[in-house]
Fold Amino acid transporter transmembrane domain-containing protein.
Amino acid sequence: MAQMPSFHSLRHINLVSLVLCLSYCACTTAGAIYIGNSKNAPPKDYSLQRDGASRMFGVFNAISIIATTYGNGIIPEIQATIAPPIKGKMFKGLLVCYAVVFSTFFSVAISGYWAFGNQSQGSVLSNFMVGHKALVPKWFLVMTNVFTLVQVSAVSLVYLQPTNVVIERQFANPKKDQFSIRNVVPRLIFRSLSVAVATTLAAMLPFFGDIMALFGAFGCIPLDFILPMIFYNVTFKPSKRTLIFWGNSLIAIVSTVLSLIGAVASVRQMVLDAKTYRLFANIQ
């Protein structure tokens, strides 16, 4: 699938990815509700854990993860600012994107926390197993994990595509057809290598939540909450006496602080997790 040459060629895979996302989130929510109401339900404890410093860093870590989560709409969000008719279409796409994000992530988060309390794992599916015993029917757990695996494979193509484009600018020939031997061979080699490297790193460093937090702090918070405010003030030059100027400035300043502290918190959490994780560890 990684050999598909452009974002446009991924449109059907994106549709399948959307359906799978809705499916596994629905399954995860239903599974959490099933476990929470079953006789095998684990004891629920909603009290806050850890000391003051760890709790504070945990808060900023969570903010960075949330920023990454809602940064999924960054592409249609950027395109929704350009000239009509694309602007209208991308704005509708952005609304659909956030509707999916709200409905899926909130349903999983709320049901998972209700069922497992402060023992909820970074991937709530990990809570569906106690030792080697599944708390839901095995076929249901297998189905949910298959949905998740295929969806992650599909959405990974979107995130790898910008890297692939940068690489191919160095090795492809724009004067040749994209499906010519001259362009297919380098694409096959370098895209296969990029998938292999990404997969190896993902398996080697099982810090999914921590890496999401790091991406949020360094990438999503600046792109979503800092640069747009600065660009607006620089481009449109609103009067310093207006609310919009100071509102944009305040958002940019607060977001900068959140980004810096979030970066420190995510790196700190990686260091803590490195004490218990090992390379290529089975996090289950």
About this structure: Helices lie at 11-37, 52-70, 74-79, 86-116, 138-171, 181-204, 208-236, 243-274. The two ends are 28 Å apart (CA to CA). The first strand starts at residue 129 and ends at 130. The mean pLDDT is 84.
